[in-house]
């Protein structure tokens, strides 16, 4: 990537993804809604000056502001548009030739008495070719006229945005007899003259007329669909209008998925402090490594000549080794975070929009499933949802979700509904796993809670600091964190009911069921009382964690979408562990889970239920309606999958080590994809190698997976240091962490104040 202004790429280069989606070179284009267009152009005056092609662009542009506008009025006259609600004026001025009349109009804007338009879009040539029958004299006159206009446009460009639209090619076979003299050869000659003359006298880069040449590329692909061979089809005009909107509005609105024309965001105070911290960690690690190496050389063991045995050095430095591990972890993390920043905050690597096709989603899915089957091994234990099996489950689900994200498959509703089940299955495992641990172990100590919270949140907290993003932006981590705390609170609150206590008296089982019923009641109440939910999470400092774009609606929506599935996971764990305790299921190697008859019936019901849900999800027509039903019915497919995977003994006794490996780093994969595999906060795709999309995905995926694996190891190493088992030491660490977050909140408040 050569760097430079991405606006130049947006105005001059790109390609089509499919038939209608335009992809600018090196950057992402935002699709502006009417409300966004109005907010950007409020109190602005825009002028389109030129021929019928410019008139077409004018209509496409004002339809971005008001889609109800109809193309009517005098075709060979001026057309005025005004949106009074936003005080936007957009005028089309009919000047089909670059001549003295056009020059006079442009000159009037350069004089002090007349208000200058904020945006000027000009262009003309085909009328000159037509009227003068394509003569060379007309081209010569065009050059003279545009030479006289160029200084005026450059003068306007000092205070306004000025665009000169190059002439699109024509489809000569469709041209009427009166237009046959308009050939692509003539158009190219006029375009070359315009490019050569415009900006020839301007030395100031900010006072340049922007040449809108991308329309020519778009027309080359679509002009054959033109009705008359001269004017572009509507979809191409709309693309040109959207490009114009991106060129002007991206630097104002700063949309996440509109990286074109956006400057690199300045470093915040917190980011600068993080940079200093990681730099000091790297320097500290290098110093300690040198000291450690020198000590090692001085105390290098030598051989005892009498006994022939090696003498060990007497000096032991556990504190230094712990400090060295801490600094080494932060050193690696600092380098990794630098890569994160360069990928998704600096304008160093290219970003592209996603484009969904069925093949881009389903072919990689088939490929990874085949790979997963290749790496089949025997499990160490054959219990239901044993560790290898849950890692495998997390692994293949995570890979499917990654493919779903990079392929842009969220636009295809049946795929979206199935992916929602996979996210629900993760939360189901959260309920199942944490309930099982607390029920069996009865360990409600602070150490366990801190370990889980640290492992879940460490990477996200670092990314919030380095990437300047709110905690709620990484929505899945807040979701599993809050659900873990809900599970903990449900079981830890008096009376603490665990398996050991319940085995002594069966009534405790009913006590636990009563707790679960109370939990379900609370979930039901909060899901239908948005006001109460928002009040709970709007209190400071909770609001700092759960607000996104100034409110907690996104958090409420995410929580509500899978509100029952964690409860289902807890209930399943309770029933399964009760059946296991009373020896009502058989978990021997190769044995079916129940008797042959019961196993066959349950297996048949599970397969039918699984397929029924898939048919229902595939027939969804409305995302909102399906999302309303999803929390209640997603558990059907999850339970069906668990039974299909565990009832046959031979299926329960094997697992895919390929999927299980990815399952162990599934959380890191889910979070890291935001910035170093996808781009623009998941809205686009990171491009490390332009022009080779498949090779680019291979390279970026390899780096992405390696980084996720490395971060998993760093998190595990730091968890042992930051969260010690000794309670007094742990309390001191917790006070330090509380101080750290207090400082973070203070600096965050300072940042917000400076931004406002």
From TrEMBL:
The keyword Transmembrane applies. It is found in: Golgi apparatus membrane. InterPro entries: Cas1_AcylTrans_dom, NXPE4_C. It is an enzyme of class 2 (transferase). It is a multi-pass membrane protein. Residues 253-734 form the Cas1p 10 TM acyl transferase domain. The chain crosses the membrane at residues 269-291, 325-343, 355-375, 396-417, 452-468, 474-494, 506-526, 561-579, 600-617, 659-679, 685-709, 730-750. Keywords: Acyltransferase, Glycoprotein, Golgi apparatus, Membrane, Transferase, Transmembrane, Transmembrane helix. GO terms for biological process: carbohydrate metabolic process. This is N-acetylneuraminate (7)9-O-acetyltransferase. It comes from Bucorvus abyssinicus.
């Amino acid at each position: 990537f050569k760097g430079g202004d991405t606006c130049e790429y947006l105005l001059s280069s790109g390609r089509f993804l499919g038939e209608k989606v335009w992809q600018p070179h090196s950057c992402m284009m935002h699709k502006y809604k009417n409300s966004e267009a109005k907010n950007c152009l409020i109190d602005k005056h825009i002028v389109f000056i030129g021929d019928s092609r410019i008139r077409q662009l004018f209509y496409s542009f004002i339809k971005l502001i008001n889609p109800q506008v109809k193309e009517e009025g005098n075709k060979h006259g001026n057309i005025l548009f005004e949106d009074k609600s936003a005080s936007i004026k957009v005028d089309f001025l009919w000047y089909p030739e670059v001549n003295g009349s056009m020059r006079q109009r442009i000159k009037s804007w350069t004089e002090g008495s007349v208000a200058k338009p904020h945006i000027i879009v000009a262009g003309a040539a085909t009328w000159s070719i037509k009227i003068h029958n394509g003569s060379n004299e007309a081209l010569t006159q065009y050059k003279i006229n545009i030479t006289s206009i160029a200084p005026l446009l450059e003068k306007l460009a000092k205070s306004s945005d000025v665009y000169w639209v190059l002439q699109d090619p024509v489809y000569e076979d469709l041209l009427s007899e009166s237009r046959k003299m308009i050939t692509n050869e003539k158009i190219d000659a006029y375009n070359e003259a315009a490019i050569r003359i415009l900006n020839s006298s301007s030395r100031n880069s900010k006072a340049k007329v922007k040449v809108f040449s991308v329309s020519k590329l778009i027309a080359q692909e679509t002009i054959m669909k033109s009705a008359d061979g001269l004017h572009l089809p509507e979809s191409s005009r709309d693309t040109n209008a959207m490009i114009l909107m991106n060129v002007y509005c991206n630097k104002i609105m700063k949309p996440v998925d509109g990286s074109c024309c956006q400057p690199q965001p300045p470093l915040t105070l917190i980011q600068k402090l993080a940079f200093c911290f990681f730099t000091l960690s790297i320097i500290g690690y290098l110093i300690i490594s040198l000291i450690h190496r020198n000590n090692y050389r001085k105390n290098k063991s030598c051989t005892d000549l009498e006994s022939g045995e090696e003498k060990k050095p007497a000096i032991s430095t556990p504190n230094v080794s712990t400090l060295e591990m801490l600094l080494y972890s932060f050193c690696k993390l600092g380098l990794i975070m630098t890569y994160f920043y360069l990928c998704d905050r600096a304008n160093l690597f290219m970003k592209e929009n996603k484009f969904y096709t069925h093949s881009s989603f389903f072919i990689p899915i088939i490929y990874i499933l085949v790979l997963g089957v290749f790496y089949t091994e025997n499990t160490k234990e054959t219990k239901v949802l044993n560790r290898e099996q849950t890692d495998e489950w997390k692994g293949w689900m995570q890979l499917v979700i990654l493919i779903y994200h990079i392929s842009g498959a969220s636009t295809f509703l049946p795929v979206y509904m199935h992916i929602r089940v996979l996210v629900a299955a993760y939360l189901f495992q959260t309920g199942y796993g944490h309930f099982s641990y607390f029920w069996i172990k009865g360990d409600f100590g602070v150490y366990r809670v801190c370990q889980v919270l640290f492992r879940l949140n460490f990477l996200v907290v670092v990314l919030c600091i380095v990437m300047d993003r709110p905690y709620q932006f990484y929505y899945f981590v807040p979701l599993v964190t809050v659900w873990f705390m809900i599970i903990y609170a449900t079981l830890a609150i008096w009376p603490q009911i665990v398996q050991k206590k319940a085995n002594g008296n069966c009534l405790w089982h009913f006590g636990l069921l009563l707790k679960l019923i109370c939990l379900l009641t609370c979930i039901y109440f909060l899901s239908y009382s948005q006001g109460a939910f928002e009040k709970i999470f709007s209190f400071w400092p909770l609001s700092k964690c759960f607000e996104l774009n100034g409110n907690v609606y996104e958090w409420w929506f995410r929580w509500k979408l899978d509100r029952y599935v964690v409860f289902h996971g807890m209930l399943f764990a309770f029933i399964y562990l009760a059946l296991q305790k009373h020896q009502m299921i058989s978990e021997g190697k190769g044995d079916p889970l129940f008797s042959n008859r019961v196993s066959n019936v349950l297996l048949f019901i599970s397969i039918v239920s699984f397929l029924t849900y898939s048919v229902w999800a595939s027939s969804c027509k409305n995302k909102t309606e399906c999302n309303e039903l999803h929390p209640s019915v997603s558990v059907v497919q999850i339970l069906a999958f668990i039974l299909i995977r565990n009832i046959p003994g031979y299926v329960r006794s094997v697992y895919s080590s390929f999927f299980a490996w990815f399952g162990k780093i599934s959380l890191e994969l889910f979070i890291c994809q935001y910035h170093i595999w996808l781009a623009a906060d998941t809205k686009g795709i990171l491009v490390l190698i332009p022009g080779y999309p498949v090779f680019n995905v291979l390279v970026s995926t390899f780096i992405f997976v390696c980084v996720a694996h490395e971060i998993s190891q760093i998190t595990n190493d730091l968890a042992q240091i930051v969260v010690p088992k000794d309670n007094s030491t742990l309390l001191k660490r917790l006070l330090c962490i509380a101080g750290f977050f207090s400082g973070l909140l203070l600096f965050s408040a300072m940042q917000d104040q400076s931004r406002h």
